[in-house]
Fold:
Amino acid sequence: MAHHLKTMPEYFQAVIDGKKPMEIRKDDRGFKAGDNCILEEYEGYVDVPDCPDRYLCRKGWHECPEGDDYFELPEECRGKQCEGYRKELYTGRRCLIKIKDVYDLTSAGLAGYVAFTFDIKNIINRKKNGKEKTNEKSAGKTVGKK
Structure:
């Protein structure tokens, strides 16, 4: 199983530099030893100012018959923004890791969270021209020794 995980630039860089030996994540995916994760360097999002199809939202906030006015929407729909209205901002850099050990953090007061150590398998730096450059030198690096 491969999990795609958004990772802020400062944490992404620390992982590939070997300075961040583990991840702490909400365990909403059932992380297990042996799982692959793709860390994707994520810079956040920007709100798209106008829904491209505000009368038939892809995320299901509202459905309006053709010609209805936005202000005739039910009160709970007015002014809502959903993921369909956002543009995710990724740098194109990715890091494939393989989980080694998973630790439940409930006893540390973080119910529903886990910490895991990992091996870096591959680092991909996507250039602006769309070509990918694999950093073979860092591939196979072990991070988070017991």
